[in-house]
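Changelog excerpt

This revision adds worked examples to the README so contributors can see how folded entries look when concatenated. The first example is reproduced verbatim below.
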Amino acid sequence: MYIKRFLTGIAAGLIVVGVTATSVAAARAPKPPMQISFDCANYYVVKGDSATINVIRTASHGPASVTFATSSVSAIPGTDYTEVSTTVDFKSGQTLVTVSVPTFANSVGEPTVKLTLSAPSRRWSLGDVSTATLTLQDTPPPSAPTNLTANVVNGSGVPYVSLSWTAATGSLDHYTVLSSEVSGGPYSFLGSATSTSYDVTPVPSVTTYFVVEAVSGTGATSDYSNEASVVPPVIGHGLYWAVFNTGIIGAANPDGTGVTTVAAGPTGAFGVAVDASHLYWAVDASSGGGAIMEADLNGANSHALISGLNNPYGVAVDASHIYWTSYGDNTIMRADLSGSNVTTLVSSTWEPAAIAVDASHIYWVDTADSWIWMSNLDGSGAQHIVATDPYPFAIAVGASGIYWAVTGSNSGTDGAIWTAGLDGSSPTTLVASQAHPDGIAVDASHVYWANANTGSILSANLNGSGVTTLVSDQGMVAGVAVSQ
């Protein structure tokens, strides 16, 4: 037997009010209205089954009663359904009582029956849903869609919400997509789809919750799918990361919400940097096939700013220049923000990986000799400042110190996040037991890093406390930046 019930905002509100009164009774909250009603306004039943109708009340103390009756709209009593007229009795503690309405399998069309509540017992009144409609159908409505997901995706610089779900089964004509700014609804109609996907453009400006229902050719609707939600990204004011194995550049708010893809370039995406207006990242390729890519902060206008590079890894940017490491040539390089005036600043630095800059210095990690290096912005005065554990691979600079990641073994969790003064003094382990951290960034309050083996981006306070996973399942993340 199948019976579909549509919860109205009113009915849902009645239930919530009852729960609230129970939970705050000690605070002498106002008593809820003592009302009896149906739990929805529309019911559906397959012909030949008995429809189960729910009668609910807003409080459970003491007994209560109400009269339930059926009457014809288009259904014929004795041919399509059996008339029911009965008293619904609530015992003390009960908030729901069911009534069955038998139907006949040989009825024609989709006849309807009116359901009515009347004559509530003393001190009780009727709720807003005191009448309802029962529709008799030949076949069950479709099953509910499942596995609904909602993701923010970038489309040529215009982010949108991509909804997808697993198809319903049974008689199906289309899907209805609904949304709400409140988890659990009430939901409003958003659009229809004939496939198992739907795009919402543009991304809503507030957190939004979505559900999908399946609709048959006769208009019968399934139950709702699971609920999926999105938090809008704040492009230009959060995290960015590069995914090496896919070439994707991802973004999210600093707390990890609003995850979106802002660009999809060549595979081999490595270091990533951001300034007030643009996003930069390295595409790791040897024999002159590498490049420094540039795009607007929302991913629009993506292009190769500088081409013909040999294994560029790390990228950093300041107000006038972009800096990068050439792992293939063992050099530190620089160019104007326009991509012109490409210059080699430091040569023969063994195997430079990530790079960072502040107002006066360049910092980089050398994987061959496990040193942290520093030079002036023009490349002069290059020197070791910290000897570190083997295979440092990412570096960031903050107002009071440098931060770097030691990757550890390729498949283990023996990587770590370190910090030291700007001159390399007092090196300290901040966070241990990390799964191959390959990117790191820092702002005024937090340090952020990517664990390539788990595809996760994490954060911690600047003293290493409060470690939190912000974003998961991102693939082989190899660079992280945070807008200031």
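The second example, added in the same revision:
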Amino acid sequence: MSTPAHGFSLTLDDILHQYGSAIAVDHVTLEIGAGELVSLLGPSGCGKTTLLRIIGGFLQQTSGRVIVGGRPIDDLPPNKRGVGIVFQNYALFPHMSVAENIAYGLAARGADRSAQKKQVGEMLELVQLSHLAERLPKQLSGGQQQRVALARALAVEPRLLLLDEPFAALDKSLRLDMQIEIKRIQRQSGTTCIMVTHDQEEALSMSDRVAVLSRGRLEQFGTPTAVYDRPETLFVNQFVGTANQLQGTLESTSAEACSVRLPGGRILQCAPPHEALPGGSDVIACVRPESLRIGSDADGIAATVELGLPLGATIVHEVLTDDGLRIKTSEPRLPGLEPRAPGSRITVSPLAASAIRVFPVPA
């Protein structure tokens, strides 16, 4: 790029958007740092695409402010906001070459021929497509088309880059390569990037921070590690990753831990709940399959293996405890290791109390 981008901060200040009486975005506030890659993660209908359209200026929010680099931009039309967008279908011009597609935004902004040529050359080098400059989009693979769309968005040196489900059209085998590639390009360009996705692996692998949304509300905003290891709500624990859910009663709690009594009488030591709960509360104790150890410990939960699935580098077992609880476990699979046979007797033990998160039973 002719002048390296250093990114701009983005503030979403109490954004509310309604369609009639229906609330699509419910008072969302986010502070995104310059140069960050942040994912808006959630199921269909959670408000993530609405937020992206509000940032881009394609939709006027009901209330709240969009602030870029310390300046509100709500009064600016889309073409004046300094926002680059990569759509799900890439939206390349089929009759234009790769170089012409990348130059389109520059030409629309009145850049002269020499400036266009220089910037296009730098963009082609950035996305490693210099050897394909004269090809048409139909002569490119899906991953190559995606890189062209990314180069076109970055060529105008946007203050923000918006990615709308950027990997949805790619085969699974290509997605990881393109996730690494886009992360590399984003890091090299220094552009602040907001990505919409419903794919949790995509969000966790690429993002500096993840905003998890549900029904228009912000459930949690934090690093991928914090969101996965320390979910603040039951929804986040259910949506991000996989977790066994064990209903029980909160016996006692302290700043370091809490005790939950399961229906069979067993007491689990767990991490303290995110919100203060009185003793005797009905709660759900959540533990991820990889946080359980299969063995024959005397203090473990006695169970019978019902099913074993070898999933590449891991083995997942579904087991039935003697108390009637159905639990999934996950463990690394060594070469040649087969799943345990159905009917095998085992015990299941949590790796640590901190691996069990506790939430109130939804009303």
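Reviewer comment on example two: The CA atoms of residues 140 and 262 lie 57 Å apart. The domain at 10-233 is CATH 3.40.50.300 (Rossmann fold).
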